[in-house]
């Protein structure tokens, strides 16, 4: 049970440990047929979830650019040449560097400022509170098209076009509103008595936040980090508009140029795509332990 | 309540200009709430500079005839000043009522609504079904969960490439259909099948988020309710209908709203799946991007006007959604 593996806030943990075993036993009484059907459905769903990714990996092993039309032929001539070519003869590592700078920068800045914001809106009823929450929600609705041109002009005014910091800030505008919302939901599940205790012991509001609440909010922070990371990693539109020099491309842009530059050599594309997916998936499985708990807190608490 | 919560009413956000006569109240509010403002200040600054100002400026652009030929630009060493002019609401009138408005706006609008409705329905029902299955005591449950999250874990631009391989003419999906003696549609060329493929890929990519959120919601339902229902002789369906669904209400209303907003603005999947080759399969967001960045000359004003219209549609929808929730005595989790 995923909720037992993480530090959940007190009230949640109580309900989870108190109720889960009983519910499980009751459900466990289901007939063998029902269990088989569940396994059947879940297996089919897992295969559907897995297949496109697995297929990409499989195709990336074929040496010829048209092998994706004759997948059967790949079995006989599997090779890692595509990977070697991508790693040796392309700008792969430049793209990796810039993607990592942008992604980790977004994650770090985004999580820090969305945590402080989430804490402020969770604990303090300051004037303008409701307006502020509404702004956070509306910001998520902004379509790329309306912001792209003006953002470009502002960034070029600030000398931030083709600059990592510029892209990081742009990504923060898309990730922070949701993360702040999520963190607010998580902080709401942490008992207010903890804040009180901190205040009684003479901590400032910032001290309470940094020393007492943040350590308790790790699962929530993990989800916010996860969301920021994946958003920044996979974003296409802003990256292709704001990054101009090809050594600063992120993967999302680099992969597209790769297609035309190498005349749609799909085997190389597939190999690059697989290599790109590895850091993301690695990060994903690093934080997924906290995922359900964090999302629960964000979603179920008002 | 507790000392940690400061309840105050009245004033709007503190970074705005105080209205005259409220100076004293503002000062008081500042002393009492300065740490709250300090904590939200970074967000307010970043959003204000990079979202608020561009929004205002973008709105101004929609009132002009700006395109890439008449905006300020630098060619070599020559600075060319902007020559676009103010034309009022003509862009909106042209988009909504102008000649060929149906082909340019309304057909995309209808398709966007259909796309959003179908995708979110599929996300939610499939996500709920899988969450219910994963919420049982089953062997290998963790493994299933890890595999089922995969479409979310791998970046969209990678998985869409995978789907393009599979959907290509002669790709694995058509080979498979051919082997079963079924017709093999041109997924990436025929309009209907393009739309079908787009929905299919988006559903595949969007289910994990719903599944995890709903799984979290299911795990937070008090099992005493199930026991009570069972004591009263409720059938499995009745337990689902009268315990599970009401228990999921708050998380559902939130994730459905988020799903609608995200799907409505879903850029990456359609853009990467078709590029600009499929004018009829473009939803409003990708179509606006195409107008502003995918054609020559780039039509900044029309593109921004589409953006403003999109935003207006979403804001109106969200307001009604919230009102509808409030009427049903529910709160959105914000």
TrEMBL record, chain B:
Origin organism of this chain?
Streptomyces zinciresistens K42
- Where does it localize? Cell membrane
Q: Alphabetically, which GO biological process terms does the record hold? A: transmembrane transport
> Which SUPFAM superfamilies does this entry report, sorted A to Z?
MetI-like
Q: What is this protein called?
A: Maltose permease
Q: Which family does it belong to?
A: Belongs to the binding-protein-dependent transport system permease family.
The annotated region (Disordered) lies at: 1-23
Q: Which UniProt keywords apply?
A: Cell membrane, Membrane, Transmembrane, Transmembrane helix, Transport
Its domain of life reads Bacteria
Residues of the ABC transmembrane type-1 domain: 109-321
Q: Where are the transmembrane segments?
A: 34-60, 109-134, 146-166, 192-215, 255-274, 300-321
- Pfam families reported in the protein's UniProt record: BPD_transp_1
Q: How does it sit in the membrane?
A: Multi-pass membrane protein
InterPro entries, per the entry? MetI-like, MetI-like_sf, UgpAE/MalFG_permease
Q: Which GO terms describe its cellular component?
A: plasma membrane
